[in-house]
Amino acid sequence: MSREEADHFARLLGRAPVPEWGPHRPFRVTVRLRTPISVTTPWIAFDGLLFHLRLLDVLGRDFYLLPVKFNIADHMPQVPWSIPLARTGPVWHGSASVFEPDTVRVTHSYKRFEDRWTEHLAIKRVRQGSGHYRAYMMAQPYIPARTVTWWGCGDVEEVERLLRTYVVGLGNDHRIGWGAVSAIEVEEVPEDLSLVRGGKAARALPVAMCEDYEDAAFLAHRPPYWDPRNVVLCVPPGTRCRLK
Question: Mean pLDDT throughout 180-201?
Fold first, then answer.
């Protein structure tokens, strides 16, 4: 990203009013799906999803000009940034997704050049063996889930507004029909189950936060989850643990 581009996004984010979240209350989000969800990771982190929606909410169409896998926060530290969730240390109170049913399957997606309406192209020969128009077959992991559930603790009204305003699909390639959303339900629950639920980690938890745990792996523990700087030794979701 150039300095001019970083300044442009800094101005846009700087104009956004500093959010004043409401009281933090525990809640559960249930998303009902019309089509199977395509994923490349075992779960979808709720705090990562909310950061995505917050950027989309503030930047509007400029959101789609952001560079891929580029941590924009490094270039604009003066911009206050948050999501409508409670936080303990570096960890936001948003669980990893729970798919129901949770069965991984694999299909294939095909890309090929479509020759309809090409009679006016200046180029009369299109290479399909290499380059931009190369045809290919790609393995597509998916889960035939009917629902996706998250637990969180935060400003319930703002979380619901972001979800209902912007979420039409979940996972990869929802632009071609995967993970189409049919309904979103947000309801308050009696206790915060976003970190530990039933004696097991509900999300990736740094081992430094845990009094006792049965397993650990190097995992990203905060957004952006693709940034290797956010990887620490964590208790994986679904693993027995006890917080300090």
Answer: 97
